[in-house]
User: Fold these one by one.
Assistant:
Number 1:
Amino acid sequence: MALAIEIQMPVNALTQSQPSLALLIERAAAGEAAAFEQIMIHSQQRVMAMTWRILGNEADARDASQEVFLRVYKYLGRFKQDQDFFAWLHQITVNVCRDIGRKRQHDSGRFLSLDVGDEGEALAVPSEQQDAESNYLRTQERDLIAKAIATLPHKERASIVLRDVEGLSTEEVARIMKSSSTTVRSQISSARKKIRIYCRQYLRRGEQAKSQ
Amino acid sequence: MNCKQIQELLPLYVSRDVEEKRARLIATHLQSCTACAGSAAEYEETRRLLQGFAPPTFSEATYDGIRRQVWREIERKESTAPSLPQLAAGLFRPRPIWAVAMAILAAVSLFAFYFIANRNNERREIAEVQPTASPQRPAPTASNSPSPGLRENNAPYKGTDRNKGAENALAGSSEPTQPIQRRKRFEKTVESQAVAVITPSRSVEPSPQMSASPQNPGSEKILRVEMQTKDPNIRIIWFSPQRTKQDSPGRFSKGV
């Protein structure tokens, strides 16, 4: 539930607290540890959620979140007060996820590993109880999307997560990705097509499994 | 717009990422085309799934662990980061291999300097001497003191005898001391710098141009010495008339 709120009210809620955040950033940049701790507490859920969405598993998301905060600490002195802190944070997060994704790909030959269950598990017969079924369906959907996103190249993955999951505008995504709006639109269009095809194939196979 | 064009635009249409005019055209098309409308519904569903793509709930312990790890990492980096005095000490600590390298470099530089300076000196000497070998200079009178090194017969010179003979021939001339010294230096230069090739001294029959004086036709023999310098364009030819009764100035010319 808390995560649903996190998705629904990401930017606006935090921009309302900009004055206090700006003060925290200023103090943290001056070397105050307590202020930086507050910044971490303030943004940890957002960072962890985004890294998990891009990388697809908790272990990598944890590593990526640590690295994001380390980079924030290192480069906080360069942050300008007129900048949007969360756009800056997103930018760091996307870069860290790209680096970790490359490293994982290099280490294991796979782009990433997923915590979600395998296909057989995902297509298992749901429970008859209503709540359990609803939970199960939600989990199924999440696993399906996680797997679909995992098939995308990094740029498409980051663009679709920022645009559709984080709810940013195309222009904001372009700024974070240091790219043009046209390129981002193209990436988003391509990502949606691939996800749609993946979901369709997945669901078709599920129907075939049910009928057998 | 046809279905293919509509299908291309549908992924962006569902998030209102197309122009207003195109969006109206697509909406009109979707009302009449069930296939495209089905695709649009699938894209809508995909987008809905993406918007609801929430990560699992992470415990507070997970976040605490992340923060602790961040602080640990910051402390580790700050403790291992070298301070300015440490950096300076690292830069200026004695390195024996650098000392050896510097010594070798100095030795090579000295040798190169000596070699270049020596070459320049030799060049300067040649520049000084060359005018003395020009045909305009007064011809040496070698006949006053017959040179022991020069042979009148056809016997070839060999080895150092050849150079010695030439040197003796020049040294034996009756010129003042300074030109002799200069010529000696020239000899030395020719020897070291220009590979002097002295053709065997021989007696030649007088040619019409350099024939003996009409007073004593046939009474003189002409000694000819040729020296090829390193420069292929410069050959030094020295003629020494040998008279039995009276001396006559020799002819000295430089063939180019």
Number 2:
Amino acid sequence: MGELMIGLYVFVLATLTGREVITKVPPTLHTPLMSGANAISGIAIVGALVVAGRAEGALQTGLGIAAIAMAMINVVGGFMVTDRMLGMFRKR
Amino acid sequence: MNLEHPLIEVAYLLSAILFVVGLKRLQSPATARGGNALASLAMLVAIVATIVDAEILSWNGILVGVALGSLIGGVAAKRVQMTEMPQLVGIFNGFGGGASALVAIAEFVGNPAVGAGSTGVTIMLGTLIGAVTFTGSFIAFAKLQGLMTGNPITFPGQNAFNAFVFLGVLALGATAMGIGGLAVAPLTLFWAFLGAALVLGVLIVIPIGGADMPVVISLLNSYSGLAASAAGFVIGNMVLIISGALVGAAGLILTMLMCKGMNRSLANVAFGGFGGEVAGVDRSQIGKRPVRRADAEAVAAELGYVNSVVVVPGYGLAVAQAQHELRKVGDMLEDRGVDVKYAIHPVAGRMPGHMNVLLAEADVSYDKLFDLDEINDDFSNTDAVLIVGANDVVNPAARDPASIIAGMPILDVDRARRVIVMKRSLSPGFAGIDNDLFYLDNTLMFFGDAKESMSDLVREVRELA
């Protein structure tokens, strides 16, 4: 089995897992869910590091660094703002 | 996958597990904060594994990128007002999509002769989805931030034009992979493909109006995940594929919930140009019929001497930033022995859960917030409903099959004994139609800015015997 097929299996199964887990998130937490998911989409940082680490030439290096900066905005900003919001959800 | 260094793959696997477990903990407000911490730990594990594995030659640029991104993200997260969360999430979606697109773009730049194999196709997909997410999110941000009109921007032949651009994007992508054998350098075609994809992102979002933003934000959230997955296929990294798929699923589920909350299909939201000046709706009579007015003193008396009050917040609450005053009113009513609940419509505000976050910020206990299905049967046993800056979500016209909002799930507030509507004027909501609720015998209109009105109400409730 080629790497593409393995990737497709993983993608489909992860989507189904995500559906099962996320359907049960209550509406009151939908905004933190979204900003948390946002932070997770910052996983592109992994790709950005790989690309920047092996970049050849100024263009590729520039693209890699820009990708790192954008992904880190998501990672740091996303997790921090989600934490800030969830800290406000209190039961009295 | 890197089979020479199995430990790296084990670290990525651990990261994927932590992401899933972290998301699972979002199923309850009690465990959600820990879940978010687990997800950020998952990210840290993935980043460390990548750095160990990637044999990075030059650190300077990377450190600059990391420092710059962390600083911008951190400051934004600290400074943002809860009322501005939709914009923030909107623009973060854009950065996520942009980062994934850049990864795919860099791969193409490194190997323009990639051809039309699986690598070529995944590069094109990653670039396309990421680029559309990037510009689409910036338009959504601009609309929510008020940098451009929140109304739909439409022109004749729009859908046909968008379809033409989309086909153009596909054609450019195919030729950039060498299909058709044109005598133009692949990289040149690729830049044209990227440019057209960026334009497509703008075109997709401009016809969508303000109150449909919950759908757009959710959908772009889903795209940002799919873009990350595509980037994962490009560089052959499973943790990217898995995390991207999780985000894609989350965004898609929220998109569907938001569409259901308006009883509209995704196609209708995306292509309908709904909202603003709607053709075929008679607006001449809006605001002309007599209403019963009440001032803060009268409203305080209506709320302070009853057993049960349900508050219905809408986007107007966020605009006026009146959530703290609202909570004060709620607290004082509770001290008087009134049972106070909050009814949250799925599409109240500009993103899923927007109202819940505002009320949480104002320190309203989350077990007092109820969604539509939980509370709709209670309205007939409710003494008074206080509507703050909401309109279409409480419009009984949704029960009329002839209305343009026919079939939209609404909060059945008109079944309560008394309805008090706090609003600036009788102007229509996003759907552009009049609201019969305002003219009912049991409705009182409490006109004014939500924050000032709420401050007046705080004072008047305090004065009650």
Number 3:
Amino acid sequence: MLHGLTFEVPRGSIVGLLGPSGCGKTTLIRSVVGVQIVKGGTVTVLGWPAGAPGLRTKVGYSTQTPAVYADLTVQENLRYFASVLGAPKGDVDRVISEVGLEDARRQVAASLSGGQLSRASLAIALLGTPEVIALDEPTVGLDPVLRQELWKLFYELAARGTTLLVSSHVMDEAAKCHRLLFIRDGYILADDTPQALRTRTGSEDLEEAFLRLISERQVTA
Amino acid sequence: MTTVLALPRPRHGAITLATARRILVQLRHDHRTVGLLIGVPTLLMILLRYVFDAPGAFDRIGPMLLGIFPFVVMFIVTSIGTLRERTSGTLERLMTTPLGKLDLLLGYALAFGVLALVQVAVVLTISMTWLGMNVPGPLWALVLVAVLTALLGMALGLFASAFARTEFQAVQFMPALVLPQTLLCGLFVPRDQMSTALQWISNVLPLSYVAEAMHQLTGNATPTATLYRDMIIIAACALLALVLGAATLRRRTD
């Protein structure tokens, strides 16, 4: 359940959705990609209502649990989604190298490690070069090196004009986003750049900033 | 800022074919399932032949089972398969893509139709050669009834999967939906010997028409009007179940 959320995501930026599990991050992401029943309010993506048929090749989505066919190889998974999306030839090879899964491309998804599996799922979201990519906890279970590589990829995508909506509950990732939405119990606590949040709360640490915002809210409530 | 989006070109044929191919590739990775799909009905047929051990009885029961096997197998495979799509998140992912519900349903129908054809071909070949099953009716009609029944099983499985949360539950739908139909379809007791109430129930169960169609084929060398009527009923039931199944696929969920 989300309450009175109003926010805009500028193009070509990485927006982080931060908050504890169960706070509504997944619901928010599902609303943006158009698979969530929205009871009230409007969600507009690239000027269209979320989930509009015209958006279906322009919005990439990766769920929290890797959504791939466990009994297909990485390559077969990607080929299928590429043909569903009508992605150009060569896109399968491109996304495999972008997420660094060249060595595992012929491996059946069920035999992949957790980190490989989430990268395979991420690769599907990159097919067809969507303008908006919504990633629900894309770096869970990845080692720091891989995480850093993925963030490098996210910056590259943003530099090319792709808008990324990335959810996470890890605060050290928050600092990497261009803009942050702190969410708690379905409310937005803050919507600002990491630097502005640090200045506003007077704390260098974003975790600390988050806690201060919570206590501020409790005082005013 | 509003972007002008080009209307997506309809490429549904391509998506349907890609989906069917994907399902067949999944099966190709799973040799054991394919082996069971083809091997189990064959084995049961052989067993049946020697249990009855009388040419007349096997000629009567054999073709009926030829219709029921693909029905049961397709029901199980589809209900588990689509339940997996729902629980693994691949369905949700597909729902954010240009894939239409019909692409998915027809993709399943196409892939499992091919599979049913292979299954029926193997079982039929063994039944008619080694086991000496004698069916006077035309072969094409026999195969058509069996494949339509397989598609019916597939469509019902798809529909049933919407009401199961786990694979345990999905498997339980098989006896719940399939066994009563098998008991009432005329396989064990001719339908006109059942009580009126049971006959009524039997009249609305699709498998009764499968049994009747197969019975027509074992009794007549040329297709009868009843056979054509039964084929239409089976196809209509499959279509209805497919539409009901489509209604359970939602782009948006809670």
